[in-house]
Q: What sequence folds into this?
């Protein structure tokens, strides 16, 4: 091996021909450009080149503010939608509640009307039955007339004629036959049952209570088989009688019966009384 083989060479490496050609072309182009520029500047007759400036629109956008505004609007719209929805729900609830209250009020009013109607119907029925009962005592065909004299024991008649105070009572009562029956009437053109008895006894100077209940217990109880003219007949319980009349003798009584018959004279057998009292 040679003693100089390890010493590196000091020669520059050769450049390749292609790289030299490229460098030469670039340099030539640059020099050509500079020459043309110099020529242009050296010619005084050349007109200046007009320069045109293009103005670009300036965008002055504040994107942060726009985004914030958009979010605020969206939030407000959402809030308004929620409020509107809540109001709609409240209105619907109010309508539903009002409808329920109206329905309940209507049902209660109907129940009240039905109750009042039923009460009126029951009252009218009771009055009708009472009137029918009163009419049944005073209407229809006459039953067998009891004999006025020599009546058998237990027939409820007496043979003695009315005299004195009894005659005044009987005569007054018979004089009212044919007059009208009016509830609460005390004369002179109309009477109810107790009003007639009270007025008849006034003719004898005797003051009686106004109501039939009190009149039925005003005197001494007597048997229907031992009646005398002027005795007070009553129907119902003593002390709570619902009807009174005057025994006029001959097995008959005079009484203000009801609005359909007025004051009449009837046989005892037609509507037998419950009991009798004697005041004279």
A:
């Amino acid at each position: 091996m040679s003693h100089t083989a390890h010493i590196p060479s000091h020669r520059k490496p050769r450049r390749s021909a292609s790289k030299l050609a490229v460098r030469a072309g670039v340099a030539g182009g640059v020099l050509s450009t500079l020459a043309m520029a110099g020529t242009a500047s050296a010619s005084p007759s050349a007109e200046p080149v007009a320069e045109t400036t293009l103005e670009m629109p300036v965008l002055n956008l504040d994107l942060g503010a726009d985004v914030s505004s958009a979010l605020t609007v969206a939030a407000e719209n959402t809030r308004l939608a929620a409020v509107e929805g809540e109001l709609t729900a409240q209105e619907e609830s109010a309508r539903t509640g009002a409808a329920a209250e109206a329905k309940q009020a209507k049902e209660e009013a109907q129940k009240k009307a039905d109750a009042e109607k039923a009460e009126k119907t029951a009252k009218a029925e009771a009055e009708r039955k009472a009137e029918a009962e009163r009419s049944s005592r005073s209407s229809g065909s006459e039953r067998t007339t009891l004999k006025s004299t020599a009546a058998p024991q237990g027939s409820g008649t007496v043979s003695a004629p009315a005299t004195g105070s009894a005659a005044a009572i009987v005569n007054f009562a018979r004089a009212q036959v044919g007059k009208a029956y009016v509830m609460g009437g005390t004369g002179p053109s109309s009477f109810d049952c107790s009003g007639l008895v009270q007025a008849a006894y006034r003719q004898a100077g005797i003051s009686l209570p106004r109501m039939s209940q009190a009149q039925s217990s005003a005197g001494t109880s007597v048997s229907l088989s031992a009646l005398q003219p002027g005795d007070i007949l009553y129907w119902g319980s003593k002390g709570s009688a619902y009807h009174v009349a005057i025994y006029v003798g001959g097995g008959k009584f005079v009484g203000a019966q009801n609005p359909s018959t007025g004051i009449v004279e009837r046989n005892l057998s037609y509507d037998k009384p419950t009991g009798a009292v004697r005041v004279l």
The radius of gyration is 67 Å. Strands lie at 180-181, 190-191, 220-222, 232-235, 243-249, 252-258, 262-267, 275-278. Helices lie at 17-42, 63-138, 164-175, 193-202, 212-215.
